Amino acid sequence: MRTLLARGAAALLAAAPLWALAGAQQYEELSASVRASLARAVTDRDSVRSEDPETVAWVRAMHPRVAGRMRDDDAARELLALVHYEARRAGLEPRLVLAVIDVESGFRKYAVSSAGARGYMQVMPFWVREIGMPGQSLFHPRTNLRYGCVILRHYLDIERGNLVNALGRYNGSLGKPGYPERVLGALRSRWTPGA
């Protein structure tokens, strides 16, 4: 019996990296103008400038904090450059985006929540149907970060800058304690210089 339980526990632990425990954005009807604006934001073809001195310095500063969470050093640096670029592009603090990724997926590229949210920022697939293009994969790092940052910016705009409410909307837990505090706690304890 113990052997059977041990095998079952081992199987659950082995499957754990594939699942994320985060909530999920809730579908809300978008006006045509908002839908068009968000669609433009996720589909434009601008490119990441990873040689930009500001990006290089930021990646260098954040890399030690991410290195233990990702096995592949090159993938960690690439992710950091993408986070910096996509966050700044959406008017977000890149450290906030790292805190969201930390809480949402634990830096697991292929994380899937029980609600079906996908990737680093745990984006729900309905967003691709709503504002994206067919065939976009939410497991592709840049696509996932682009959607996640645009959606978080959208929720910040809806909430007139109220970060706690915007984070609640992002997680599908608006009005419930827990998630915003976890993200803000991660921001303070893990992603703020000197912490």
What does this structure look like?
The protein is mainly α. It has a single domain, classed as Lysozyme. The protein is 59% helix and 2% strand. It is built from 9 helices and 2 strands; from the N terminus they run αβααααβαααα. Helix 4 (73-89) crosses helix 5 (94-105) and helix 5 (94-105) crosses helix 9 (179-190). The longest helix is centred in the last third of the chain and has 18 residues, at 141-158. Mean pLDDT is 83; it is low at 1-22.
Give a short synopsis of this structure:
The chain is mainly alpha-helical. The protein contains nine helices and two strands, in the order H-E-H-H-H-H-E-H-H-H-H. The longest helix is centred in the last third of the chain and has 18 residues, at 141-158.
Question: What topology emerges from the helices and strands here?
Answer:
Elements: H1 2-15, E1 19-20, H2 32-43, H3 53-67, H4 73-89, H5 94-105, E2 112-113, H6 126-131, H7 141-158, H8 163-171, H9 179-190
Parallel strand pairs: 1-2
Helix pairs in contact: 3-4, 4-5, 4-7, 5-9, 7-8, 8-9
